[in-house]
């Protein structure tokens, strides 16, 4: 299952808060995609989730639009 979280138009720290809340609701092996148009969101989300066992992939899918893919590892 992949959860998609729309953070378009949200300013920091809102995308990071939504990402952390979503991550905590994931089960092992599940993924979430956080979509944001705020340029600092990818690095802020990475910083917020670095304490957890997860994979994070960041893609700029269109100019200024980011998909941050989070996979819970345990």
Q: Can you walk me through this structure?
A:
The chain is an alpha+beta fold and 74 residues long. The protein has a single domain, classed as Translation Initiation Factor IF3, CATH 3.30.110.40. Helix content is 27%, strand content 38%. It has helices spanning 14-24, 41-49; strands at 2-6, 31-36, 54-62, 65-72. A four-stranded mixed beta sheet has the order 1-2-4-3, covered by helices on one side. β3 (54-62) and β4 form a beta hairpin. α1 (14-24) crosses α2. The model has no long low-confidence stretch (mean pLDDT 96). This is Sulfurtransferase TusA family protein. Residues 5-29 form the UPF0033 domain. Pfam families: TusA. InterPro entries: TusA-like.
The string of secondary-structure elements, in order, is: EHEHEE
Count of all domains:
1
Note the gap between the termini: 15 Å
Approximately what portion of the residues adopt beta-strand conformation?
A: 35-45%
The geometry reads as globular
- The overall strand count is 4
**What is the C-level CATH assignment?**
Alpha Beta
CATH superfamily: TusA-like domain
Cα-atom radius of gyration = 11 Å
Largest sheet: spatial strand order: 1-2-4-3
The largest sheet is: 4 strands, mixed
Query: What is the helical fraction, as a range of percent?
Result: 25-40%
CATH topology: Translation Initiation Factor IF3
Low-confidence stretches: none
Structural category is alpha+beta
Specify the number of helices: 2
- CATH architecture label: 2-Layer Sandwich
Mean pLDDT: 96
InterPro entries: TusA-like
Protein name: Sulfurtransferase TusA family protein
Domain UPF0033: 5-29
Organism: Tissierella simiarum
